[in-house]
Amino acid sequence: MPSSIPPLPGLTRYTWWGAVPEGLFTKTQLDRQGLKPGSDPVGQVLYHGNCYAPLYEKSAAVPKRGCSPAQRAALDRARELQYVCRRCGDRRDYPLGSGRWCEPCSYAAGLYAAHAKAQRYAREIVADPGAALVVVAAGPGEYAQPETVAVIRVHDQELLHEGTAGAYGTPERGALLDRLDVLLDGRRVVHETDRGPVSRYPSMLVTPPGQLVSSERDGLHPWLSPHRESAEKADYVSRLWRNWFAWTRDEWTSMASEPWDQERGVWVAWECTAQAADDARGLVALLHRIAEGTEPVWGRARWIEDGHGEPELPRRRRRRTTTAA
């Protein structure tokens, strides 16, 4: 309801209901009597302090047109369907709203929407002739120092750079950063991970040993800026694969996360070694498989396990899956 409804010009205004003459009613009041206005309003009454409702003569009102048996049956059917999930067919004790999904199907649809979006982003990256993947590889350990760095063009899987990372503050590390600045200028840059071992974050190349925060040199390298500013501004293979694979810890979530178990811990679909070039080739191949739809999905993904198949997304949700990152 609007905060205010201005008065209609040229009509008598009544500032309280007791002042309204007999025989004048609002459209709502006529509706409750099975009538509808049969002429233009002849007055208006103030309500809610700043709203005016038009008043109509009851003597000029006409009966509302009733529903035919077929129309009544259609309305009853539509009302009943508000309680029935359009995907699984289960009936609930409450109306399901415009999407008409029960809770389990809503979670399945949310996961599937992210899954479909991941494929679209992968296709965009694979189709971009300039997109490049940067991999910073390190030995075992959460805070191990970078050992090798590789840059690979995603479209044709051509390795553009591979070499050692050098130590922080040395001419070798400085030469590497200068090389990356030139090589990645104007390209869509894809990184390996947005979660996982800190040692594999690209910002480790400008992070002093023993610290968790990168130095002020970070701002001098545009290809690092999206990664440092916001996870949503950067492309990560791990995020695309996570949403594609659709592993979830429990049934009451629509957000995918890295799969894990007690014995294996967190596991991913690519190798994490100290050889950046080998890892980069595996990651680019993974992007191509997601784009082609051949990368396996978790066998217990919600829309697979519940037996109802891929959710048919509403138009508004389909539009969201096609907006740019």
Provide a descriptive summary of the structure in words.
By secondary structure, the chain is of the alpha/beta class. Helix content is 30%, strand content 16%. It contains nine helices and 13 strands. A five-stranded mixed β-sheet has the order 9-8-7-10-11, sandwiched between helices. It has a four-stranded mixed β-sheet with strand order 1-4-5-2.
Give structural attributes:
16% strand, 325 residues, 4-stranded mixed β-sheet, alpha/beta, 5-stranded mixed β-sheet, 30% helix
User: What is the ordering of alpha helices and beta strands?
Assistant: EEHEEEEHHEEEHEHEHEEHHH
| Average pLDDT, all residues | 86
**Percent helix range:** 25-40%
Poorly predicted spans:
317-325
Question: Structural class of the helices, strands and pairings?
Answer: alpha/beta
Shape: elongated
Helix segment tally: 9
**Proportion of residues in extended strands:** 15-25%
What is the terminal separation in angstroms? 35 Å
Whole-angstrom Rg: 31 Å
Q: Order of strands across the widest beta sheet?
A: 9-8-7-10-11
